[in-house]
Amino acid sequence: MNTMAVIADDAPLLLAVVGPTATGKSALGILLAERFDGEVISCDSTAVYRGFDIGTDKVSQVDRRGIPHHLVDVADPQEIYSAARYAREATTAIRGVTARGRVPILVGGTGLYFRALARGLFAGPGRDGALRDRLRRIGERHGLHRLVRQVDPASADRIHARDEKRLIRALEVYYLTGRPLTHHFAQTQSPLAGYTIAGIALRQTSERTADKVARRVEAQFAAGLLDEIRALRAAGVPDTAPPFGGMVYRQALAFLNGVGDEAGTRDEIVRANRRYARRQLIWFRKEPNLQWIQVDDGPAQVADAAVRIIHERVRQRPARLAP
In the list 85, 169, 204, 313, which could disulfide-bond 208, CB 3.0-4.6 Å? Predict the structure, then answer.
């Protein structure tokens, strides 16, 4: 495929490939980077952590085919890596790619990270430990999701009922500011204001997702997922480290701690992936200005459709494509 550079006469261009897990985002991102002389900026909340490789399906150096990847392996396992930090560091990386005359390509499935860049995050009140403890106790009796539904229905629609961390944050913001999260979101501005974003979202049938995640989990165990976790623990990474709370690692760590058997653990990881894919699909459907591509027809058709979307988006702004 011939390399092309997207050259803007005014607004710089950012390509984005987002969507549910196991839809082929990484492969498409690399293909577009080769086609449009780009560099990849990861949009994955677990891939930022060093040492967590197999369970996050980080693209190997060989498979990157010489394409630079940013926002991968940038945090120690015991750090708390927030969406606000991601927005700052990803913005710096994106502007750096643009300054080098290349095209930044955002690739990943962490919806909050994408929103932080595309629409911005509000600064918000700081963490209130006492309030959070109180909310946890109240949640044990009455259910956090029901409380969020009462004060911020829009956030309740967006946040999964078992996502305690985000439910508590929604309640914390409401009780500290008197206004729901959705009100604050409406007041935010993207840190990439001025960029033209060509956003592509991938989706596939639930049956295809089930098949692909099952095969991926088998490959992760065959590649040494459990040994990777053992090595991290031996190196001093505690079970309470943030990335151990992520999907795949959470279930595998529980197994190493004596919960269930390996077959059941694999099945639970597959089910968790499928639930996560559904939540991602719901999230990205609510993001404006994304062009959706059904990936079931194969990678060649997906690539052609993506290139057409990018060309069309570029034609809508003062820009030119230079061969």
Answer: 204
